[in-house]
Amino acid sequence: MLRLTVLLLFLLPGIATAQWTTENPGSDNLTVLGHIPLGPRLSVADLDMEQELSRPFVYVSRMVYGDEGSKGTDIIDVSDPANPRVIYRWRIEEQDLHLRTGGMDVKYFKWKDRYYVVQSLQFGAGGPNNDLGAVILDVTGLPDSTQVREVARIHEPDLPGGFHNIFVYAHSNGRPLLFSTVSGPFAHVYDLGKIVEGNLEEGLVARVPVPESPLGRGRARGYHDFYVGYHAETGQDRFYGGGIGGYFVYDITDLQAPSLLVTLTGINGVRSGHTFTPGPHGRFVIAETEYRYAPLRIFDLKPALDGEESNINRPISAWTADWRNLVHNHEVRWPYVFVSGYLDGLQVFTLIDPENPATVAYYDTYLGPENTDRYPVFNGAFGVDVRNDDGLIVVSDMSTGFWTFRMEGFRGWNGEDWGVPNISSVQDWDSLP
Fold first, then answer.
1. Which DSSP string do the residues of 67-132 spell out, in sequence order?
2. In sequence order, what DSSP letters do the residues of 180-191 get, joined into one string?
3. What is the pLDDT of residue 5?
4. Taking the CB of residue 157, how many other CB atoms lie within 10 A of it?
5. What is the model's pTM?
6. Does residue 422 contact residue 415 with C-beta atoms inside 8 Å?
């Protein structure tokens, strides 16, 4: 183990210690390949990148904040990462009548040799489609944008407000699943195969509850975000959810009987969990909560998974780019964590020593002022993704648009190269986990 650790430390980029400035917004080991603006200030949300090199497409959610923006999805061709270009824009009809956010989260999936995109949506009461959670597009024909077509819409009339976050997962039962937040004390699970084949009535196949806690009982609780992954050591499909009260890990191998494995509640400074992502072993997890000054907290689940404790409430470490701000979404390619850090842009840190996370690269995609409303840090880098085959990094910035990067020494990721299971948010749609 010592020899492996020494080798991994040798392979890591140098630790980035300098602060960024207007004149020098990034570390020397991170190269900007391309950048394109997409629209007005605060009109860009999350993104997702296809993983096959033969399909160089990125999907970017478009939202509205205040009175500006477009509600829908932009499709970007990154076949030349130095010259990304928008090749298609999907927009909800009657833009002015649809109130509030619009497009928030987006994910792609593959089913029976066809490729699809799920765009999550949130529209307010007083306008149309307050109960619309997602639109599904068939994008198999790309780069021919004339072949893009809408194939389904997921409505939830009993739970209006849309889907704030979504995750797609290739379950060990062979089905492509969509996990969505809803305005209820659970996450919804949809069978995307059934939905794109026209069986909307049979699409909802399961729910994963949010446990009650002193911070949320009855319907006054819900999820904000989650990750779903295969746990190689036990053969379980595991759900990692952040919501009212903290963070929760379920065994969802049997979708009809989710089994709660670990709770992370009673954590100082955490009333509600947000983004929650495990490493490939499922032992170490990165947890975000959404308020200014909050760091990413790193937890070790081993005592709970071994049955020594029923609840974990103390992190083993924490990381932030700048304590005055807030770090946001993240992608784990162990030992790296790629972060879209709002006002701090793209950040990369390493968990080669989980008790001592260290920044290895950064680039500030947003050098403008703070937001002027009650969310001053709500601007800048929103989404991040990594292509495992070649290490391409993409970032969506709420105000400056879309960016492509390469990090020195990082030309792709396969967990086996690092002595861990080859498990990340990337799904293998052609075979079971």
1. TEEEEEEEEEE-SSTTS-EEEEEEE-SSGGGS-S-EEEEEEEEEETTEEEEEEEEE--TTSTTTTE
2. EE-SSSEEEEEE
3. 42
4. 8
5. 0.94
6. yes
